[in-house]
Amino acid sequence: ALNLAMTSHALRVIAVAYKNLSTFNEGLQKGVLERDLTFVGLIGMIDPPREEVKEAVKICRQAGIKPVMITGDHILTAKTIAKELGILTSQTEAITGEELSRMSAERLNDTISRFSVFARVSPEHKVRIVKAYQNKGEVVAMTGDGVNDAPALKAADIGCAMGITGTDVTKNAADMILTDDNFATIISAVKEGRGIYNNIKKDVHFLLSSNIGEVVTIFTASIINAFGYKSLGVPLMPVHLLWVNLVTDTLPAFALGMEPADKDIMKEKPRPKDESFFAHGLGWTIVWQGIMVGALTLIAYIYGNNINHEIGMTMAFLTLSSSQLFHAFNIKSTKSIFHKTIFNNKYLWGALIIGLILQFMVVYIPGLNDLFSLVPLETNTLSVSIGLALCPIVIVEFVKFVKNLFKKD
C-alpha cells in the first residue's frame, strides 16, 4: 500500500533490506542471499519534469501532435507524471511492456492510438510502438539518450538524441540532436520548420504567378498580332523581362523568405506527408493570379499604345514591375493585407521601396531610360499605370474576403 501511495505521487521507489551473514563468499546462490531479509524501508526518488514541458505538451496538442510517454518507470509513476503534464487524458490509456508483449502486431496496430503512456518497456517494445504508429500512417518523432534507445531512434521518421546525456551510439542513430536536452526545443523546431515551409510556398507562389503574368502578356500580344485585325506590337522587350526577373522578382522573393512565422502557426494541423505542394487550391491560385497580372499589364500597354508605342511599352513595364511588388504583400499572409502583421516584415517594405525607386529611375533618368527604350510618363499615364499596379491588392483582398466568409459559414 505504501509503495502504491508513493508511486501514485510520481516517486520512483526502491525497497531496502539486509541480511546478517557470518561469512560471505561469491559462491552463494542469489536465491540464498535474497531469502529471509530484514526489511528496512522504502526510498522514494523523483525526477521532476521541467517547467516548460507542460506548456510544450499543450502546444503539441494544439498543433495536432500527439505526445506519448515511453518509460521504464512503474506504470503508476508514469501515469501520475503523464497526467500532470497533460500527456495522459481521459481519452487515452496507459499500458505496460508485459501487456504489450502479449499483444499481436495486428491488435497493436488497431489499438495503438488508444495509448499515450507505455511503462516498463524494453528496447524491442519501443521499436514495436514506433512501427505501429507508422503503420497507421503517422509521422513519428522519437527521443532518447541511452544505447537501448538507438534501434527505436533509427526506426522513427525523426530520431532526436539528447546532446548532453545521450550516448555516442544514440547520437549516431539520430537525425537530430538536442544540445540542451529539452523537449520544448523540439516544439520550437517544429514551429520554425512550419514557418520555413510556408515561406518556401510563398516564394514559389510569388515567382510562378509573376512569371505566368509575364508569359500571359507576351503570349496574348503575340496571338493578337498573329490573328488580330490590328497589330499591337511588342509590349515588352527582352531587357525589360530581364530587369523584372532580376529586380522586381528577386527582391520580394528574398523578403518573403524572411517572413516571420505566423503566431497561430502552431494551431494548424500537420499536413499529410504525401500532400502535394500545390494542395488546397494553390496551383489554381497561382494560375489565376498570374493571368490577373498579365491582363493588367496588357490593359496598360493597350491604353498607352493608343498614344504611341513607347508610352505603351513604358506603361506595360511600369505596371508589370510595380504590380509584382505590390502583389508580394498579398502573398505574405492568407489574412487581409490590412491585418496587424502587415508591418512585421521590414525586408518586404524595403524591397517595395527599393524596387519602386529603381523603377522610377529607369523610367525618368535621361540616358538610363534610353537604354531600356522607355520614356518619362506624364501624370495621367503614370496614374493609370500605378492604379492598375494596385489592382492586384483590391482583387486579391476581395477573394480573401469571400473565402473567409465561406470558412466562417
Q: What's the layout of helices and strands?
A:
Blueprint: H1 2-7, E1 12-18, H2 30-33, E2 38-45, H3 51-62, E3 69-70, H4 75-85, E4 93-96, H5 97-101, H6 105-111, E5 115-119, H7 123-135, E6 141-144, H8 150-155, E7 158-162, H9 168-173, E8 176-178, H10 183-227, H11 238-248, H12 250-257, H13 282-305, H14 309-331, H15 346-364, H16 368-371, H17 379-408
Helix pairs in contact: 6-7, 10-12, 10-13, 10-14, 12-15, 13-14, 13-17, 14-15, 14-17
- DSSP E strands, number: 8
What ranges have pLDDT less than 50 throughout 5 or more consecutive residues? none
How helical, in percent, are the residues?
Answer: 55-70%
Quaternary class: single chain
Radius of gyration, whole Å: 32 Å
- The strand order across the widest sheet is 3-5-4
Overall pLDDT metric: 90
End-to-end C-alpha gap = 56 Å
- Could you tell me the strand content as a percent range? 5-15%
Look at the helices and sheets and give the structural class. Answer: mainly alpha
In brief, what are we looking at here?
This protein is mostly helical and 409 residues long.
